[in-house]
Design brief:
Chain lengths: 267, 553
């Protein structure tokens, strides 16, 4: 439930928060694509630093971001530690030597670089998603990227049903307990029970989804005429500037990495 | 498809549309039976029609046909025609607005204003005309908030008002309502029907509706059409003529008849405002019931019927189940939490908890059933010191039976017979004893002919009876029911009253959480009102009105 509702953003009043969803997503995607191509501490460090510094401009507080991205932080830490322990690069000064566990300055650097890269890829996207209102996103996708309205607004309507599904899941669990069905410690029973519950959830979701589709068609969603939009989605100069800024930042990061001799393309 | 003329002024209301059905029939793919057949019906512009008929008579199918929402590709066969203002319904979709049962499954957008605007966007109405029309529609249905109000923060009744605005904003010449109050508590229902009345008052639109809360609906219509499975329209005329002539036959078929025309000895029309008929109601008067059935309720325990007779007629039995300081909060949810509550349930006692949606009554019932872990305190059976939420499920189901609002939630087996066998098997009941009990329950709840059927394929009333039977299969001491009469026809309703009364007389403790004030009035030895997570003894007048929603008026 918390995951579902937490995944939906709200538009904010920050300088970046106010931008068009397409600009925000584009601006976040650009560095991510480049960082996927290379592993080095310089480019990912610069982009991560820029993303962290930009938090207030998105209209978010540091604490709020931390509260909502903790699963990401956990993933980053896990990856970093995993890389430190299992990397093949074990040169440099030895820091820890406890039997199979060997940590050196080089392995520490390798782990940190891997963690930073993941964080730098993900954080801009997270910031964008946290500040995008789904309705605005659908409007922007339809208007600026010519996404079919049936897909965009259909997905939007489905998103509204997500919290209902979470409630339904709980009710199904209670109903099974009321019937004397509980897995206890038996893993096979647990799998069977889970399967039945999931199936019941899907049956309900399909039914509700088709009711929703009929209700939408009753209001002319399937009409073939030209559709208008009640809300205006504008792509302004400020939005273009965001894209441009993101491109400049990404290019700078690559140039610096190459200049520092760290650029290390994996592709 | 013609789009709405954009040059009409904001407050313009269209002329009513003529609805014409000629030899109309529809059979869904994969079904042997026609959902609806041989329907001939003329509805004049501006007429207001209530469509009634037993469950399965094809009322919803007919409404969808009028709204042009039936897909010919999804039918096995169809015949005849439906014309709206002279055009086939499928091509006259922009002329018809429709309101559905479940508001959760008809709202599209997260903000109220955007949702109303949705239908205008689809019709290609220019942006500068959209918002004035949205505001006018919201005003017309008496929506009490601004456009920015989140749709999930609304009560069911308010959501349904919003959905009505979303239909009206398209200026339909025909408005079709398919049980718009089915999912709502009594206050929500009133909110919606008031909005319909309000909207219909200022409009020439033709109105066609199906509605179980007939006492509210009959005030809005000037014509009643009775539909029968396979026979088309069997009665048609002003409400007083149709109900006057057919009231008894309709009640016998399970159709709710307004209290005004319900035969005095019959189950009452429901939700007739706030008063329960002062005449003693004989719950045994179900047409299927014989004199033998009548003897099951001893005369000294005549079921409580009068408003001020809501006192136990016999002293309550020994303590069975108690809730001890239970409370429960839902972090981040609008649902009001359950405040610290103590409650005792006794053998041979029927307790009904009433209260508006979100008052915490279902949470209390689930805690008492041992299905939800309370934040504080616990629910205990009198003879065991372990709180119920920590019991293993197979032991729990032997002592406490729970019936959920939606019967489908508790179905687990491919056939009715196997469904009944699950509980006793889990509870470790001896197999020959279990088989005997299942046979007896099948018979008692008139499910014996359906033992081999898939539970999901049953009718609404059959599903309800099966869900009660599954809870009874382990012969529990306590039976907890969540909205047992929800969506049920008159016949199942009186069967439920009779069954619960009999179980209570056999010494079980019954706890029902319900919006259905008449069910509570007829069954309860003790009535409890719940509001904002706290309980209080029910006042003698059945429904404490809540003013939160009334303020919208």
């Amino acid at each position: 439930m918390i995951l579902v509702t937490g995944a939906v953003g709200n538009s904010t009043s920050g300088v970046l928060g106010r931008r068009n969803p397409v600009a925000k997503l584009g601006g976040a995607l650009l560095p991510a694509v480049v960082l996927l191509a290379g592993v080095d501490p310089v480019s990912s460090g610069l982009i991560l630093a820029a993303a962290l510094l930009s938090v207030p401009a998105w209209g978010l507080s540091w604490l709020d971001v931390l509260r909502r991205v903790w699963p990401l932080a956990l993933a980053v830490t896990t990856i970093a530690v995993g890389n430190m322990v299992f990397t093949g690069r074990k040169g440099g000064a030895v820091l820890v030597d406890a039997g199979p566990l060997l940590l050196t300055t080089e392995s520490l650097a390798a782990g940190t670089a891997a963690g930073m890269r993941l964080a730098a890829i993900a954080l801009p996207g997270v910031l964008a998603v946290l500040t995008i209102d789904p309705v605005d996103l659908a409007d922007a996708l339809v208007k600026h990227l010519r996404v079919p309205p049936r897909f965009a607004y259909g997905s939007l309507a489905a998103l509204r049903l997500a919290p209902l599904m979470a409630t339904e899941w709980e009710t199904l669990g209670r109903a099974r307990r009321a019937r004397g069905m509980e897995a206890g410690r038996n893993p096979i029973a647990a799998v069977r029970l889970f399967g039945g519950r999931l199936f019941a959830l899907l049956v309900g979701a399909v039914r509700r989804g088709s009711q929703l589709a009929v209700a939408m068609d009753a209001r002319g969603f399937d009409s073939r005429g030209t559709r208008t939009c009640a809300r205006e989605s504008r792509f302004t100069r400020a939005d273009a500037t965001v894209l441009l800024g993101s491109a400049v930042l990404t290019a700078t990061a690559v140039v610096l990495a190459v200049a520092a001799g760290q650029w290390n393309p994996v592709l | 498809m013609t789009l709405q003329s954009p040059d009409l002024p904001v407050h313009a209301h269209p002329q009513g549309g003529r609805v014409l059905l000629r030899g109309w029939g529809w059979r869904y793919a994969g079904r042997k039976r026609w959902a609806c057949r041989g329907v001939d019906l003329d509805i004049e512009p501006g007429e207001r029609v209530l469509l009634v008929g037993a469950s399965g008579a094809g009322k919803s199918t007919l409404l969808r046909g009028i709204a042009g929402l039936l897909d010919p590709d999804a039918s096995a066969e169809h015949e005849g025609e439906v014309l709206i203002g002279g055009r086939p319904a499928a091509q006259a979709r922009d002329q018809v607005g429709m309101l559905f049962q479940d508001p959760e499954a008809s709202l599209v957008m997260s903000r109220s204003g955007d949702d109303v605007a949705f239908g205008l966007e689809n019709a290609g109405v220019p942006r500068e005309q959209i918002w004035p029309r949205v505001d006018a529609a919201l005003q017309r249905v008496g929506f009490g908030y601004g456009r920015e109000r989140g749709t999930s923060a609304l009560s069911g009744g308010e959501q349904q008002r919003l959905a009505l605005a979303g239909a009206l904003v398209r200026r339909p010449s025909v408005l079709v309502l398919d049980e718009p109050t089915a999912n709502l508590d009594p206050d929500g229902s009133r909110l919606v029907m008031d909005a319909v009345q309000r909207a219909a008052g200022g409009s020439e639109a033709t109105l066609v509706m199906v509605e179980h809360r007939v006492d509210l609906a009959v005030e809005l219509v000037d014509r009643v059409v009775v539909l029968e499975t396979g026979a088309g329209v069997i009665e048609d005329g002003p409400p007083e003529t149709v109900f006057g002539r057919r009231g008894a036959a309709l009640t016998a078929a399970g159709v709710w008849v307004p209290a005004r025309w319900a035969a005095p000895a019959r189950a009452p029309g429901r939700h007739r405002g706030i008063s329960v008929p002062p005449v003693p109601l004989d719950v045994e008067a179900d047409p299927g019931a014989s004199q033998a059935g009548k003897a099951a309720v001893p005369s000294n325990r005549r079921l409580t019927t009068d408003n001020d007779a809501a006192v136990p007629l016999t002293p309550a039995g020994y303590l069975l189940l108690r809730a001890d300081g239970v409370s429960r909060a839902y972090p981040g949810m609008a649902t009001s939490a359950l405040q610290r509550t103590d409650l005792e349930l006794h053998a041979g006692e029927a307790t009904c908890i009433t209260g508006p949606n979100g008052s915490g009554k279902s949470t209390l019932a689930m805690v008492l059933a041992g299905l939800v872990r309370p934040d504080t305190g616990g629910a205990y059976l009198a003879d065991d010191g372990r709180p119920l939420h920590r019991w293993r499920a197979h032991r729990l189901c032997r002592r406490i039976g729970t019936v959920f609002q939606d019967p489908e939630h508790q179905f687990l087996a491919p056939t009715v017979g196997e469904e009944l066998a699950i509980g006793p098997r889990r509870a470790g009941v001896d197999s020959s004893e279990a088989a005997r009990r299942c046979r007896e329950l099948l018979e008692r709840l008139r499910l014996d002919r359906l033992a081999g059927a898939n539970p999901y394929t049953l009718s609404g009333g059959e599903k309800r009876r099966l869900s009660v039977a599954t809870a009874l299969a382990t012969a529990p001491d306590v039976l907890i029911l969540d909205e047992p009469t929800f969506g049920q026809d008159a016949r199942t309703w009186s069967e439920l009253v009779r069954l619960c009364g009999r179980l209570r007389d056999d010494g079980a403790s019954i706890l029902a959480v319900t919006h259905d004030l008449e069910f509570a009035a007829v069954l309860a030895d003790r009535r409890i009102a719940m509001h904002d997570g706290t309980i209080s003894p029910a006042t003698t007048s059945p429904a404490p009105r809540i003013d939160r929603e009334g303020r919208n008026e």
